[in-house]
Protein 1
Amino acid sequence: MPKKTQNKKAAAAPAEKTTKSKSAKSATPAKNAASKAVGKSNKKATTSKASAAKGKALQATKAIRKGTAAKSTKKVRTNVHFFRPKTLHLKRNPKYPRKAVPAVNKLDQWRVIKHPLTTESAMKKIEDHNTLVFIVDLQANKNHIKDAIQKMYEIKALKVNTLIRPDGTKKAYVRLTGDYDALDVANKIGII
């Protein structure tokens, strides 16, 4: 008996399958029509995307051919010489001093002028030419001597002549301006 019930069930099962397949077939044309409509709209969307992408690609190729650098006009040079362009020159602004202690001026007025000369020829220069004669440092130049005379004796020198003597010292002839008398200054210094 159980075998017969199984057969009945087996016979019923194919009938169910056929009914399902018929209903599926009847539903497929509607689905097919809908899917075709969606497919057409998808095709339109893909074609519009493709054309946009194609347009972008064409623009990119044009840009590559053209190049990124803009065309610039060449400067007309009217001179054969080239001068380097003037750029900004900033003053030095150091973060720390390069020397711990600033250098002291070694050639001050006391070192520049060693002593006045009191020979007969020097005295004659004082009387006749309004000129004082000094022995000065070898490294001192005429400007140093002028400044030292100004600082020490508060007199203005018109002109300074120098020479190096055979004994290796430097002699300076200091001509005073018309405002000062060499005799008075010599008395003040203590030469005479």
Protein 2
Amino acid sequence: MRKCADRLYKIDEITSNTYQLSAEDIGHKIRVTATSKDEEYPGVATAEFGPIKLDPSARHHLEQLLSAGGTKFTVSKFDDSDNYSQSNEGQKTKIEGSLIVNLADLKLELKNYYGKTIHSISSKYSIDFPKIELHPLHTERFSLSFCKEESNIDARVSFENKFDLQAISRQNRDLIALTIRCFAAHQHFANSRIVNEIHLSQEEK
């Protein structure tokens, strides 16, 4: 379980004795509980460690990305349909793409087999979107959700609000999540400060 402050949250889909730490765990503690199946020696053992800190190498890369104002990540999407490219029946097609994360907004571009962009969606940051969720078992996979009303869409197929994506590595996936959340927090802080300044100026009048 993940411990945030004094609250415990179950990590979905984790049923084995192995768990890979991710960007979701940074700043929090992990609690592990083991239950004996031996009827002669019943009992429950609990261990807790953390708070989890960001790896020095990942921190260095993150600081570089933030200071540069963003970057482009290589991602891929697996699709069962024939919307993006042709494939054998029942075989998933791997669709290459890029995720451009900037201070002001985020853009996802997907390309077909011939390298032509067939899906492009961009969105500014809001409180809820774009929403990124890391897969608890597959260390390179994550999902990215958009709000249709808040997005600019150029799609050759029907609009999707949620994309199941894969990064090129575990560290790359965590950097994507951290970069998006840092830029989103920055925009939220900036907007809150603007609203506060407007409120103060109205009070002065």
